[in-house]
Amino acid sequence: PPRYTEAGLVKELESSVSVVKIGTKNSDADYKINFKSFFLRKEMERIIEKEKLELLHVHYIASFYGRYTLNLNLVDALKQNVPVIVTLHEVQYSCKGIRNKVLCRIEKGIVKRADFITVHTPEQKRFLESKYNTDKIECVLYGIKPRKLHEPKGKNVLFFGILSRLKGLEFLIEAMKEIPDVRLKITVAVQTIKLSE
């Protein structure tokens, strides 16, 4: 998983339990595997057995698991002999269009297979509980401990995230007209998933 989403969680967990990190080839994880491989389930099974793991926590960002596999490798990998928690970093609010239909099917498979799902906002929790008629979803806020870095200069709003349709950035930009004394800074990463070449 990306370093910024799991660093605080891992640090907190390591204070009370043994944590084994599974990551990409370029990560500092204990095990470095190919998350885009069709053999993802076997790799995870091998690590779970070797380390005698009692729980698996998976961070789900669609582009991490491969456009050629359509993320079916991850859905299959959720069948394990230990409980599996999946953190959904994106929730599919619309299933219109080919790309969104595919992502909705993947999301449905993940919610069905995972033992527990975590999301980032109470709204995502309510939406998914209603969409999939399930009670295994919980909101876990990935907040920060505030500390004073410098004196603020005026009033500021920061938008930080993956730039994708339906994120609502256009509404934020439009709303800024109503508060002209506030400065907006937008920092984004562009996510693209091609279903075919």
Beta strands, count: 8
| Gyration radius from CA atoms, angstroms | 19 Å
The main sheet orders its strands as 3-4-5-6
- N-to-C SSE series? HEEHEHEHEHEEHE
Mean pLDDT, all residues: 84
Structure commentary:
The protein is of the alpha/beta class and 197 residues long. It is 32% helix and 20% strand. It is built from 6 helices and 8 strands; from the N terminus they run αββαβαβαβαββαβ. The protein has helices spanning 3-14, 40-51, 72-77, 98-113, 122-132, 169-175, and strands at 22-23, 31-32, 56-60, 84-88, 116-119, 137-139, 155-163, 182-190. The chain has a 4-stranded parallel β-sheet, covered by helices on one side. Strands 1-2 form a two-stranded parallel ribbon. The chain is globular, with a radius of gyration of 19 Å. The two termini are 26 Å apart. The model is unreliable at 191-197 (pLDDT under 50).
List the helices and strands and how they pair.
Layout: H1 3-14, E1 22-23, E2 31-32, H2 40-51, E3 56-60, H3 72-77, E4 84-88, H4 98-113, E5 116-119, H5 122-132, E6 137-139, E7 155-163, H6 169-175, E8 182-190
Parallel strand pairs: 1-2, 3-4, 4-5, 5-6, 7-8
